[in-house]
Design a protein that fits this description.
Blueprint lengths: L1 H20 L4 H27 L5 H23 L11
């Protein structure tokens, strides 16, 4: 379980880095952000399991889950308003 949490949480960062480099192409940017969103949600699922299996306290689980809710909120805003983040071809 620890390995799964590590992999999915690292994947959020790696996919975000890829998304950031693809800001010239709206579809590619959104696709990578969607991958980030999926990995962040997967991390939340593993955190739920960790709490249920008593590997994490309820309070620790809530705190980490809340952090991922904030990350997801930012990702959703970027997905819904990509024009705020895209690199203009006119520059």
């Amino acid at each position: 379980m620890t390995d799964q949490i590590r992999r999915s949480s690292r994947s959020v960062c790696a996919n975000f880095a890829e998304a950031w480099r693809k800001r010239r192409y709206q579809a590619a940017f959104i696709a990578k952000l969607s991958d980030c969103e999926a990995e962040a949600t997967e991390t939340q699922v593993w955190l739920d399991f960790a709490v249920k299996c008593q590997y994490l306290s309820t309070e620790e689980g809530r705190e980490l889950y809340s952090t991922y809710n904030q990350i997801l909120s930012g990702l959703v805003k970027m997905i819904n308003y990509p024009e705020n983040w895209l690199i203009s071809n006119n520059r």
